[in-house]
Amino acid sequence: MNIRFATMNDLDAIAGVERQCFPPEEAATREDFEKRLAVFPEHFWLLEEEGRIVSMINGMVTDIPILRDEMFADAGMHQEQGAWQMIFGVETLPEYQGRGCATALLRRVVSDVQEQERKGIVLTCKEQLIPFYRKFGFINEGKSMSKHGGATWYDMRLTYGEL
Question: Of 59, 90, 95, 130, which is least packed with CB atoms within 10 Å of its CB?
Fold first, then answer.
């Protein structure tokens, strides 16, 4: 398997992975991804097997320390020199789940973001995924104020130097 950054040529495949991994009310649209890829393609990590994208992580960078719902739709909020890497989605195609794809990809993201000398990584997740993120050093900060997709989310933060 190969890990690489996304390009605009990956747009349709990325949108397809999103549709398979999130319910419609939570999934980003093709147009959302097009805006994101135009602004921060180097914050899309893709895991490929034989040229097929099977897992991905994407998000923006900002100095705002909390993941806000408006960030999902407004790629203009990205600040390349920002302190915090936001993660919008960690997703693996259903037929590849349980094979360590998301683990390998998240390890790479954690390493890359640390090398970029950012303060850390912020994401929201559903309650059943809290133990997964804890394995990487993320701390559960409690229920999020996010209303994204009508789900209940939890704020998770990995701060470098506190692992």
Answer: 95
